[in-house]
Design brief:
Structural class: alpha+beta
Strand order of the largest sheet: 2-3-4-1-5-8-7-6
Radius of gyration: 15 Å
CATH architecture of the largest domain: Roll
Distance between the termini: 26 Å
Helix content: 10-25%
Largest sheet: 8 strands, mixed
Shape: globular
CATH topology of the largest domain: 2,3-Dihydroxybiphenyl 1,2-Dioxygenase, domain 1
Number of strands: 8
Length: 121
Amino acid sequence: MPRPVHFEVPADDPERAVRFYESVFGWKIQKWEGPVDYWLVVTGEAPEPGIDGGIARRETGMEVRNTVGVSSVDEYVGKIEAGGGEITAPKMAVPGVGWLAYFKDTEGNVFGIMENDPSAK
């Protein structure tokens, strides 16, 4: 069963957001070495329940988003559309991580799906 695996917080000033979340919750946050400005957030240690996430530089209309891990982005695109969802950003590679796409659910909430594939380019 697919489960949420990642959250994303948009920030006008990511460095300020990093300081906030580190000081308030003690989260461990480090800048990703990928092709875009992105900060990886570790919210706790196993076996505590919870998920990790990221902080991204805010883009127009961007809201907090959750991402669900799936076995195949292609398969779930069809399921989401059949269920009444709408694609907002088609399948894209996250280099070295996997495949990602964004959607709106039937209530207008944006969410992502991620297929793990370290060979994605």
